[in-house]
Amino acid sequence: MPHSLKEKFDEHLTFDALLEAHKRASKTKKNSKEVLNFEIDLETHLANLYKKLKDGTYKMGKYREFIIHEPKERIIRSLPYIDRIVHQWYIYEFIKPYMIPRLIQDTFACIDGRGTHLAVETLQKYMRRMRKKYTSYYVVKCDIKGFFYHIDKDVLYTMLKRIIRDPKILKLTKIFVYEDGLEEKGLPIGNYTSQYFANIYLNGLDHYLKEKLRVKYYVRYMDDFIALVPTLEEAKELLSKIQQYVEEKLHLELNQKSRYYPNQFGIDFCGFEIYEDFRKLRLRSKKKIKKKIKKWNQLYKAGVLDFQEALLSWNAWIAHSNHASCYRLQNKLYQQIEFREQLPFRKEPE
Questions:
Q1: Closest C-alpha to 94, from 12, 180, 22, 162
Q2: Taking Cα atoms as reference points, which of 89, 80, 99, 77 lies closest to residue 50?
Q3: 119-141 residue pLDDT tens
Q4: How many CB atoms lie within 10 A of CB 252?
């Protein structure tokens, strides 16, 4: 792994790399007006973008804002399509190959080949090891208060600057970090770069816990993180040290729900309630699919159901819930679907 990222901008700035970035950016938006307009004269648009990046005249467009209400109300900020291509190119060419390898093995957000389900499986594996070794143990469960909204841009940029030494990449990085219309703190939710920057922001905390404090069993998914320790005294001390690091080094606060407790209560993490020998679906996931089924049935009776959309949503929920012990729930919900014969579902538990 190189010590720093330097003299790589021009090497990675090619027409083919921008074309691949466009393909990734458009994958879920192929029929949007913005993408269709861009593709009408694709070569010219990419050539113009290439020139602006090459001569350093690229400037980011203005964000659009909208509000989502699931799983909770949040302000999402979206860039024009051309800027999303640049973000894709930047992350794929520089962040993934040069920054992601610096993250610890037990962080799971925004990393190819990992994700929520591997995070859950890894945590449960660690829980079993702790039970085997100690019988009972303590869980230290933390998350960051208003994480994306309170990231200190100066701290983030200093972190990135330690690795990125190429002036052209650094100039682009500075644009992404600072020129988002927000105040001195916060990253826009919905930005492709934001999720990677946020993950990198907590990398120092990960290494502090693993290497300085020697916490063997530790798992993080974005700003939710879990540590397993043998005793109550160790749990108290660890939570105190985490709180101190988060405040002093990262200029953040732990959520008031951050706490420590005995292992027999299980762990609510990444959409599941996790115990050593089984997992249950989080209540929010159950409520969400029940609400969807009710809506699907209404649309089906009215003859206006988008069956393909319902099929994709159902398959996604089944794939997610298959990671928990919930065949009876799956079957019960399946029986409530008016058009269930058109939906795939295993008839017997595996």
A1: 12
A2: 89
A3: 999 999 999 999 999 999 999 99
A4: 24
Cα(235)–Cα(310) distance, integer angstroms: 45
Which amino acid is located at 237 in the chain? E
- Amino acid letter, 262: P
Q: What confidence tens digit (pLDDT) does each residue in 253-269 have? A: 999 999 999 999 999 99
Tokens of 327: 């065949």
- Give the mean pLDDT of 160-168: 92
Please state whether 79 falls in left (phi above 0), alpha (psi between -120 and 50) or beta. Answer: beta
Q: At what angle do helices 167-178 and 192-201 cross, to 10 degrees?
A: 100
Q: Is the per-residue pLDDT at 194 higher than 70?
A: yes
Write the secondary structure of 150-182 as one string of H (helix), E (strand) and C (coil). Answer: HCEHHHHHHHHHHHECCHHHHHHHHHHHHCCCC
Residue with tokens 């679906």: 281
Of the pLDDT bands very low, low, confident and very high (cuts 50, 70, 90), residue 30 is confident
pLDDT in tens, 31-51: 788 999 999 999 999 999 999
Reported as type and span, the H/E element at residue 207 is helix 203-207
- Pick from 261, 189, 174, 276: nearest CA to 226: 261
Nearest to 322 by CA among 162, 38, 26, 121: 121
Q: How far apart (Å, rounded) are the C-alpha atoms in residues 141 and 221?
A: 12
3-state DSSP assignment of residue 236:
helix
The tokens for 195 are: 């999720």
Strand partners, 140: 227, 260
pTM: 0.88
